[in-house]
C-alpha cells in the first residue's frame, strides 16, 4: 500500500471510547492497536443552545483524523453497536434512553410524548411564572399542595360537590 493510501485510510477510523475526562471534555479512543491521547468529541449542539451528552466508555465512535494524524483527531460519538443498540427502530419516534432505564420519547405518528423513570425516580419542575396544563389531567397517587387550591368550576370528592355542598359559612377565598 502506498503512503497516500495509508494516509487516506487513516482519515477516518472506527474505534471504541477507552476513557472519558468530563471536565476537559476529551476522551481517548482505542482503534486497532492504537489508543489515542485525549481528543475532543463533537457535541450535538454547542451554540446558543447546548446539549451535554458525553460519550461513554465502550461506546463505538468514528475518529476523524486530519492528514491521518490520530493525535489531532476529533471524535464523532454515537455509532450503534451490539453492545449499545438503538433504542428504537421506528421512523416515527424520537427517543432518549438512559442506562438506568429512564426513557423520553415522542411518537410523531401517534402524537404522544412519554417520559418514564426507573423505580424511585423523581421529577422537579420549577417555573416562577407558573405552569399551565391544557387538557384533562389524570393522577394516580396523592396530590399535596402547600398553597391555595382554586377551581373556576367545582371540586368533587366521592360524589360530593364542594360547590353545591355548603355548610353556610363563606369560603376563605370567596370574592
Automatic annotation (TrEMBL):
Q: Which Gene3D superfamilies match?
A: 6.20.150.10, Gp5 N-terminal domain
Under the heading InterPro entries, the entry gives: Gp5/Vgr_OB, GpV/Gp45, Vgr_OB-fold_dom_sf
Domain Gp5/Type VI secretion system Vgr protein OB-fold, residue spans: 13-80
One Pfam family here: Phage_base_V
Q: What is this protein called?
A: Baseplate assembly protein
Species assigned in the record: Sphingobium cloacae
Amino acid at each position: 500500500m502506498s503512503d497516500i493510501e495509508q494516509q487516506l485510510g487513516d482519515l477516518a477510523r472506527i474505534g471504541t471510547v477507552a476513557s472519558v475526562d468530563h471536565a476537559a471534555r476529551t476522551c481517548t479512543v482505542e482503534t486497532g492497536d492504537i489508543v489515542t491521547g485525549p481528543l475532543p468529541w463533537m457535541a450535538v449542539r454547542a451554540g446558543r443552545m447546548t446539549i451535554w451528552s458525553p460519550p461513554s466508555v465502550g461506546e463505538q465512535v468514528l475518529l476523524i483524523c486530519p492528514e491521518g494524524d490520530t493525535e489531532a483527531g476529533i471524535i464523532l460519538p454515537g455509532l450503534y453497536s451490539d453492545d449499545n443498540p438503538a433504542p428504537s427502530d421506528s421512523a416515527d419516534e424520537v427517543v432518549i434512553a438512559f442506562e438506568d432505564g429512564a426513557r423520553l420519547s415522542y411518537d410523531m405518528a401517534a402524537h404522544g410524548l412519554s417520559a418514564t423513570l426507573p423505580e424511585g425516580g423523581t421529577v422537579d419542575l420549577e417555573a416562577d411564572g407558573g405552569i399551565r396544563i391544557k387538557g384533562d389531567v389524570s393522577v394516580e397517587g396523592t396530590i399535596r399542595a402547600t398553597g391555595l387550591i382554586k377551581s373556576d368550576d367545582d371540586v368533587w370528592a366521592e360524589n360530593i360537590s364542594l360547590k353545591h355542598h355548603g355548610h353556610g359559612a363563606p369560603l376563605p377565598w370567596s370574592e
